[in-house]
From TrEMBL:
Protein name: Major facilitator superfamily MFS_1
Record key words, sorted: Cell membrane, Membrane, Transmembrane, Transmembrane helix, Transport
InterPro entries: Bacilysin_exporter_BacE_put, MFS, MFS_dom, MFS_trans_sf
PROSITE patterns reported for this sequence: MFS
TM helices/strands, residue ranges: 20-44, 50-73, 93-119, 152-185, 227-256, 262-281, 293-319, 325-345, 357-379, 385-406
GO cellular component term, pick one: plasma membrane
Keyword Transmembrane helix belongs to the record: yes
Length: 425
């Protein structure tokens, strides 16, 4: 275990349980997503408006509830919060089996998304508490790698389940996945947060019991930590830029002369690249500055997107394997963007504030992602799809260059101040 840095976090029993629960739940989420799309399009024969409404109800709770949910997460026991969230989501997803129309379906989806706004910050806090600081990069790499594996395998598995048992069978499987996740979480020992010093307690005392003061404390913490602020802002801007073109990927492939059969192959190539990138970052990432890795990730994705945009603009029709290699390398770069960010978020945040900081950061990024497609659509209408990708590529290159030139050190002076919570094992 010591020699394979990537797997070091799995040496901790509590993280193994959390990781296994996440792996099953992630697969279930993709089954659920595919089933909803299948029912809306093929069973109810509804179009773009229904799909847009589905996207909105998925994102809106994260934007509106995400920043404030973290306050409650920091007040509540993390293990109990995650178990209750899993059980509630299991019931809501199972309810989709009896959703008679789009309106009932959207209500259940928005409720499940609202519950997830509490689950995700609690999960971040629990990861922070299940492994020591030196293994946080490994833990984040494995978590992101598993998410990408689920993204590749989930739709394929979902297609088989929908084919054999119908779309509603996928809802049952997703509901079961939440129950299995809750079962794994139930075996976790209780998380004990580190005791703050007298000075810290005096500083936090006015915020205790006052919701909005606690909320402001989380926001202020991000603003006061330069490295954390740099990571959150750079990740948010990068996700905004990616959001401008992400929904136009099929149009870009069409403009490059590829038919629809290659769309899934392109998505799979990027996903595979992200999986490989996650393994690489988890094994050797600690040799480099996390912020520099984020910069290289932005630059790598910027190059990929810029070349796609250039290919569309000049009508470049070249050997398809070239694009396959480019998508694979782009996936590697994506791993460089997202894994060091998650590591920095946890490393720079004390366990007792992890819910607020994580929830605030997630809310900001989701808002950026939600607004980005509108800008991308405007640019595409005015100047064409190729220019959307070209402009986004240049913008990501600039963001990466700015991050690379930053001189920001860790805000945490002593390792003990950011030590993870203790889990009795």
């Amino acid at each position: 275990m010591r020699r394979v840095a990537l797997l070091r976090s799995l040496s901790h029993r509590s993280f193994r349980l959390l990781f296994l629960g996440q792996a099953i739940s992630n697969l279930g989420d993709w089954l659920n997503y595919l089933a909803i799309i299948s029912i809306i399009v093929y069973r109810w024969h509804m179009g773009a408006n229904a799909l847009a409404a589905f996207s909105i109800v998925m994102f809106l709770p994260m934007i509106l509830l995400g920043p404030v949910a973290g306050v409650w997460v920091d007040r509540w026991p993390r293990k109990a919060t995650m178990i209750v969230c899993d059980l509630v989501r299991a019931g809501l997803v199972l309810g989709l089996v009896w959703a008679a129309n789009i309106y009932i379906m959207l209500v259940l989806v928005v409720l499940a998304s609202a519950v997830s706004t509490f689950f995700d910050p609690a999960k971040q806090a629990l990861i922070r508490g299940t492994v020591p600081e030196e293994d946080l990069l490994s833990a984040n790499s494995l978590s992101q790698t598993m998410f990408q594996v689920a993204k590749i395998l989930g739709p394929a598995l979902g297609g088989i389940i929908v084919l054999l048992g119908g779309a509603y069978a996928a809802f049952v499987c997703d509901s079961v996945s939440f129950l299995v996740s809750a079962l794994f979480l139930s075996f976790l020992p209780r998380l004990v947060l580190p005791v703050a010093t007298d000075t810290a307690e005096e500083k936090e005392a006015p915020a205790k019991g006052n919701f909005w003061l606690e909320f402001r404390a989380g926001f202020a913490y991000i603003l006061q930590r330069r490295l954390l602020l740099a990571a959150v802002l750079s990740a948010s801007v990068a996700l905004f830029i990616i959001g401008t073109f992400d929904s136009m990927s099929a149009l870009a492939l069409q403009a490059l002369g590829f038919d629809s059969s290659l769309f899934g192959f392109a998505v799979g190539s990027i996903g595979l690249g992200t999986v490989l990138g996650g393994l690489i970052v988890g094994q050797w990432g600690k040799r480099f500055s996390p912020l520099r890795l984020m910069a290289l990730g932005d630059i790598g994705v910027g190059v990929m997107i810029g070349l796609i945009g250039l290919g569309i603009i000049i009508q470049l029709h070249i050997w398809p394997p070239f694009w396959t290699v480019l998508w694979l390398l782009g996936g590697l770069a994506v791993a460089g963007m997202i894994i060091p960010y998650g590591y920095l978020l946890q490393k720079e945040t004390p366990p007792e504030m992890m819910g607020r900081v994580s929830g605030m950061a997630n809310g900001i990024q989701t808002a950026f992602q939600f607004l980005a497609p509108l800008l991308g659509a405007v640019i595409a209408d005015l100047f064409g799809v190729g220019n959307v990708f070209a402009v986004a590529g240049v913008a990501l290159l600039l963001v990466g260059a700015c991050i690379w030139l930053m001189r920001v050190s860790s805000s945490v002076a002593e390792p003990e101040q950011a030590a993870p919570g203790v889990l009795g094992e």
